[in-house]
Amino acid sequence: MQAFAYSNPASVADAARAGAADGAKFIAGGQTLLSSMKLGLAAPEALVDLGAIADLKGITVSGGTVKIGAMTTHAAVAASADVQKAIPALAHLAGNIGDRQVRNRGTIGGSLANNDPAACYPAAVLGLGATVHTNTRSIAADDFFTGMFSTALNEGEVITAVSFPIPEKAGWQKFKQPASRFSIVGVFVSKGPQGVRVAVTGAGSGVFRASDLETKLAANWSAAALNGATVSAEGLNSDLHGSAEYRAALIPVLAGRAVA
């Protein structure tokens, strides 16, 4: 691994200043970045560790919203009684990310900033119509994810928290790659303040909404409403884990299971 500078700021403001420097990268749980550095796929000149910033951790429920600090681990979200009561599908999703090491080190903010096309959290954020808060602004889920490993974040911008509106109903289903436990296809569905939303991860170059399935579920919120539903394979991933057609076939099946 190459040499790099390291800083451990105690405030978001200090972190943002350090992160704005050329060649600097923020590190949260490090589950993706450190592996990339070991493989020579990333070579930041400086790492800005967010782990000491207490304001970035914690979960609150108020006014019909679950707000989760960016440095809150997947394990903490899964174990939270507040999340389990307000949005059980979100707790279920968090509890099935990766393995124990990943769940106890990985963070919601790190996952969203990285925006892996097969990650689980982007589907929950888009599927619930959440809002991503940073040190400078708030970004709606529909505007946050911009492509493969790409987001609306600017250089030096720090995710501070994510606000999830509490839905009337929500569900999550993942068909996982057994070794990595990433989604070959994952589908998050919800019905609530943001209307009916169906978000898909793992199937394409990034998380996306399945608008045709949303229309069917808006008319009839039931698994039966998706019987015979189809999704186009155009633009979907095709690799050793499954063809684009296979992924397309999985989407309505998993959506129906999530509704059920």
From TrEMBL:
Q: Which SUPFAM superfamilies match?
A: CO dehydrogenase flavoprotein C-terminal domain-like, FAD-binding/transporter-associated domain-like
For the FAD-binding PCMH-type domain, which residue ranges apply?
1-169
Q: Do you know which InterPro entries this protein is assigned to?
A: CO_DH_flav_C, CO_DH_flav_C_dom_sf, Diverse_Substr_Oxidored, FAD-bd_PCMH, FAD-bd_PCMH-like_sf, FAD-bd_PCMH_sub1, FAD-bd_PCMH_sub2, Mopterin_DH_FAD-bd
Q: Which PROSITE patterns match?
A: FAD_PCMH
GO terms (molecular function) for this protein are: FAD binding; oxidoreductase activity
Provide this UniProt record's keywords sorted from A to Z: FAD, Flavoprotein, Oxidoreductase
Annotated PANTHER family: XANTHINE DEHYDROGENASE SUBUNIT C-RELATED
The molecule here is called: Carbon monoxide dehydrogenase
Species name for this entry?
A: Pseudaquabacterium pictum
